[in-house]
Design brief:
By secondary structure, chain A is of the alpha+beta class. Chain A is built from nine helices and eight strands. Chain A starts with 7 loop residues before the first strand and ends in a 13-residue tail after the last helix. The structure holds a DNA duplex.
Chain lengths: 298, 298
DNA sequence: GATCCTTATACTCAAAGTGAGTATATAAAA
DNA sequence: TTTTATATACTCACTTTGAGTATAAGGATC
């Protein structure tokens, strides 16, 4: 196998925490870029490299790390090609102040339309007209838009955040699209941008995390050691951007052997709630649930 | 951002097809390595690069392509670091002969224990004793082994193929583990090996594909244009390595609006069956099903 | 042509799971 | 003591799922 020409590799991290029922992402440069840095030699693995880099530059310890996606820049400079390897990491946001221009940002600042817990009219008043204009005379575009944004009675699938962002990009409705030379089809959809394609990477992370939540216990990385069922519900609501049915959520959680009673109770306004913690076994195994297929008896 | 030192990048492909109710993977060197090659300049994207490379070297056109994982070699040579970007691609196996030492291999040749459609005793007679030996005095290892291989009444989760392979590797029960310097804990588990870490990459592909099948219509890339419900069932059974309940499978498929009647019928040894095809809309959208969470009414 | 083998297709039934809602309990604050 | 806010328990109809049985329609065999 021939070696091919040398290229440069960069690691990009989406570090997520949930605090005060709000998902947050770690940023540099006052909220305008994700943490990123070159892959250096001396790292045992890519994960180790990423962990080291983020901890050194932000002073933050990372929990669970998972790879998101790798992509190559189409030769942006004559200095040679570069590829970016992107990661999702979960952290417990400690409230220690971060140095310099490092900060935690509410991720819905970049994707306001993804938060359906609060009533807003972005989709009705801005997304829909923009996409209609873009779809003019093209029914295939129209059904795609409707399906992704839950327009004509279609239901909203929270884990399709990436596809929604990509559609807006394609339609020239986000700022970075025109920056890259696409024609606009209406007013820009509200939402802060990020450097390079970092907003797209963040959308990838949101999609991945939201998809995982449904069938794998990932949230425990984001929770305090002890928490109430409502805390857990609020955390999942924050990530998925949807509100959940309290009684049914409770039943769902209790039917699995995910949590154990800590013996303690919460204090605050209202009746005290039991404090739970994740069972040690669950933390160890990171069980991946099986898929649902109609198996036959052997 | 500093550029970091230059490295070499390689693309590795797991190309999957299903023929005669058997999943197959495209190999080079008479079934001993996956197709791999250097990332070259002039490719618009990584996917385009892969597609081009595979088509040129194997003469096979690729269908759906999806990224699997990227990993870095821990500085294996002083010639500089190299990273491998792995892909899963689905193809329709045409029966055209392939040139040279290129061939399709039944993937269960490398993972015989993953095929549970046929009765075999590999797990009972070889895996279990080996893992027991490795787990001696370590109950945590024992429960992990039991859960992954469905030992003490635990149920088999077909999409955990990668975790199973990694466990066997850790326990030194596959050949490449001792090659990499791990102690063995019993007789090697049957199954052909592949060059470098290609067997591990194949396990990753199997896990990914099996996990997808449950909640996304991916199989159509692997089927002929028209097929019977039994054909479809056999294809999914081949991939998951499990047999399905016929009537319930049929109900599941029919309840979704996935297929359409082609008007034709199959001929063969029993009553002729309706021939279906995938609906054009499904092919276009590649719908991703939402996750199951107890949503609250707005 | 009657019979058998094979596969397709239709239906049934009970158990489990899910969406939605109501009722009661227990704390702190007014 | 009443209000307010939350926790927890329970109900009920409806849907989905696992498992199985019954009937239909071809080709092959006698």
């Amino acid at each position: 196998m021939t070696p091919g020409e040398p290229i440069h590799a960069e690691l990009i991290a989406v570090v997520v925490a949930v605090t005060d029922a709000q998902p947050r992402v770690l940023t540099l440069l006052d909220g305008s870029a994700l943490p990123a840095g070159p892959l250096e030699s001396g790292h045992r693995s890519l994960q180790a490299g990423l962990r080291h880099w983020v901890e050194r530059h932000t002073g933050h310890r990372l929990g669970h790390i998972e790879q998101l996606y790798t992509f190559a820049d189409p030769d942006r400079s004559r200095a040679g090609r570069s590829i970016s390897i992107c990661y999702l990491a979960l952290a417990n946001e400690t409230r220690t102040p971060l140095g310099g221009r490092v900060s935690w940002q509410d991720w819905y600042r970049f994707f306001p339309w993804e938060d359906r817990r609060v009533a807003h009219t972005i989709i009705e008043t801005i997304v829909k007209p923009g996409l209609s204009h873009w779809s003019a005379g093209n029914p295939e575009r129209l059904t795609r838009a409707a399906r992704l944004f839950g327009l004509d009675g279609e239901d909203w699938q929270e884990d399709r955040a990436l596809a929604r962002y990509e559609l807006l990009y394609e339609a020239g409705l986000v700022r970075e699209a025109t920056r890259d030379g696409r024609p606009a089809h209406g007013e820009f959809v509200p939402g802060a941008t990020l450097a390079a394609d970092h907003r797209r990477i963040l959308a990838t992370a949101i999609s991945r995390l939201r998809a995982r939540i449904g069938y794998r216990p990932v949230v425990f990385e984001l929770m305090a050691e002890q928490f109430t069922l409502l805390d857990l519900q609020r955390c999942i609501e924050a990530l998925t951007g949807q509100t959940l049915h309290k009684a049914n959520f409770r039943r769902l959680i209790e039917s699995q052997t995910l949590l154990e009673d800590s013996g303690n109770f919460s204090s605050g306004s209202g009746r005290p709630a039991k404090l739970y913690r994740f069972r040690a076994e669950v933390l160890a195994e990171r069980a991946e649930a099986g898929t649902r297929l109609p198996l036959a008896r052997p």
